[in-house]
Each structure stands twice: as structure tokens, then as C-alpha cells.
Amino acid sequence: MDKPPFRQNQNCGDWEFKERLGMGGFAHVYLYQNHDTSEKIAVKMCRLELIPRNKDRWSREIQIMKKLNNLNVVTAREVPEEMKHIALNNLPLLAMEYCSKGDLRKMLSKPENCCGLKESEVLSLLNDVGSGVQYLHENKIIHRDLKPENVVLQDVNGKLVHKIIDLGYAKDLDQGSLCTSFVGTLQYLAPELFENKPYTVTVDYWSFGTMIFECSCGFRPFLHNLQPVQWASKVRSKGPKDIMAVEELNGEVRFSTHLPYPNNLSRTLLERMEMLLQLMLKWDPVQRGGKTNADSKKPQCFEVLEQILCMKVVHILNMSTAQVHSFQLVPEESLHSLQRRIETETKIELVNQELLQETGVSLDPRKAAAQCVLDGVVGLLLVPLCYFVGPKHTWVKRRFEKCVIDTLIGSR
């Protein structure tokens, strides 16, 4: 007996249909909420017309999802019994945790992010997606379709966490399927997938690197205004350390080894970020990612990523010039030593400096400079701001991230 057609507003026992979350190449995703518990789940359902290869791909994705357990990979849920009858065909449904904060594309599309995300948000992306990708690779899984639309955000105990979705979607690629199954998503695929060559985990390095670049600057690294079929032939000649290509008005392609301005990354971080991208965006898939460490078994790109996440950086706002100075803290460095470095860069003598935390409280000169960084921040990703105060007789308390002056005190 044929199954009745699925209605978008179809409720299933205690589960109420809320909305359609998205449409993919061969599946739709719907949001359901339980009347009694208020639990929300995302339910992915295959379309009725699927070729055999896509049916196999769908079955593999469900198998993969059910065996994975990582904070940065979306988690599979048991499909409620009363929901199983709504499938359009004999293929099973896939139930997943619902991530309510949208996807990374939504965040990148906000006007305030036209030149890239805030530094703290870029670091959070590095930590979360980097962790998820490494977990997948450790479990012998290549994602093959990493892109902003496949990274969703969830509030976990008041902190935004990135989670990878759509596992196994881009398997068994060939030239024909590239033209039919991946229209609109080719911009993040590694070059070897276009050329129908054998590929390894390094295809994910390219896609991840492309995302990192876009999140840092607001646009993709290589001729972002062209379709991949057009830019591939032009970018092929790039140098091993080139991380960006733009086309001049005369048609000449200009490459660069540096991140472009404007962006929201501090000078202290830029050099390491460029090193990371130079490893991830190598055209040669064998060299991409760098050499693997014999002890840690990690490729060089993930070791550089970990070095970035372990950096303790303090941002100091000079209230007399409204200029921000960034310093990487040396282990066990004293506050006096940090102030000497501030003096060298700003030409303001140590005796005329007063360093305040965001709350307006002065730093304790007897403690290490690391007091500038809040305790308990995982991976030191959310770097708080200290306020550099010029001459002691005048200071302005200011929230740097919002660029709002709170209070002006004329005399102390």
C-alpha cells in the first residue's frame, strides 16, 4: 500500500511540526517539538525520487551519525516511534539535535561582519571546527563538503559552540555528479575533486582553510567573484605560500601570501593565521597540511592551530589615542615587564601608565601579567580587554568591542 503524501504541518503523536529548516540536494530538514517535554529535534527526510547511489549515500550518513559522539559534530537522536510513518519511501529518517542559533552563513551575512568576524569569534571557530574535523579524521571519515552552511551554532551553557553537519554528503564524487549534486557549493571544494583525482583527508584542509579565510576577511580567498570552474585554471599557478588571489581590471591575477585588510585580527595573531592558511591552502594535496609529526601523529596545520589557540593575547586600548595595542604574553611574565613593552611601543613612560580591567579595577602590580586574561576561558578564546590609560589625571572607561564610551571622569 502506498504511503500517504507528507504534509509539512503534519503532527506525529506528541511531536508537533514547527517549521521546515532547510532543503538539501536529496533531503529536507524539519523541526519538531515535543508537547510534554518541549524537546526540539531536527528530522531529516529523503526526497521521494532518489537514484540508487544517493540512497546508498543516505544510508551511510545515518550509520556514520549514529556512531559519532563529539561536542563539535551534531548528535544523532533516536527517531520517535510515532514519526517513522511519515517517511516518503522505505528509507529511514534521521533525527538530530536541534541547533537554534542558525548556521555560519547566517552569521557571515550580517552587515557588521562584511570584513570578517570578531577575533574572538574566529578563534572560537578554529577551536570548534578544528576539533570536529580532527575527530572525524581520527574515525576515518572525510567530510568532503565543509562550508559555512554545514556549520551550525548552538548555545551550550551560555557559550556559542560550532557543530559540523551533513556528514558523508559528498561521497563518491565524479565529474558528472559535481555538475548535478553540488551546484552552488563548489566554492569550498578542494581542486583535486574537480579533476577527478584520488583524494584523502587533505580535501577537508582546503575547505576548512577557505572557511577560516572567509571568516577572517569576509570573502573567499581565490577569485571569489568567479565560479570554481573558471578560477581553478587561474589559481593553479599560485605559489605554495599564496593564500589569496584577486583579478585586476586588466585581467591579470595577483597573488598574495598575506591576509588582506581590513580585518578584525590583531597584529599578534596575523602571522600565525597566515602560516596556518599557507599550510591548508596548498594546491598540491600531498603537501597540503604540512608534514605529520611522528610523535603526535598530527599534521603541521593542526599543530599550528593549537599554537594559535594557546596564545595568551591581551588587547590594550590607549585612551589618549584610541589606538589598540596587542601583546602576546610570555609565560610567567611580570606586569612590570609588560609595561616596559607598552612603553617601547607607545612611548608613554611606565610611571604615566595605569592599566585597568574592563570593570575599571586596576591591575595588581604584584601579580603576573596573565591576570589580564580571564580565568576559566576554554582555550583562551574569549580574550577580555584591559584599558590602557594615558596620563593618570584623565581616563575614559570604554567597552572596546561595542565602541561605546560609558563614563568620563575628569579628575581622580
TrEMBL record:
Family that this chain belongs to: Belongs to the protein kinase superfamily.
EC top class, as a word: transferase
Pfam family, one: Pkinase
EC number assigned by the record: 2.7.11.10
One term of GO molecular function: ATP binding
GO terms of biological process kind: positive regulation of transcription by RNA polymerase II; tumor necrosis factor-mediated signaling pathway
Protein name per Swiss-Prot or TrEMBL: Inhibitor of nuclear factor kappa-B kinase subunit alpha
Chief localization: cytoplasm
Binding site for ATP: K44
UniProt source species: Salmo trutta (Brown trout)
Domain Protein kinase, chain residue ranges per copy: 15-305
Compartments where found: Cytoplasm; Nucleus
Catalytic activity: L-seryl-[I-kappa-B protein] + ATP = O-phospho-L-seryl-[I-kappa-B protein] + ADP + H(+)
Key words of the record: ATP-binding, Cytoplasm, Kinase, Nucleotide-binding, Nucleus, Phosphoprotein, Serine/threonine-protein kinase, Transferase
GO cellular component terms attached to this protein's record: IkappaB kinase complex; nucleus
SMART domains hit by this protein: S_TKc
Family annotation (PANTHER family): IKB KINASE (PTHR22969), INHIBITOR OF NUCLEAR FACTOR KAPPA-B KINASE SUBUNIT ALPHA (PTHR22969:SF13)
Entry keyword ATP-binding: yes
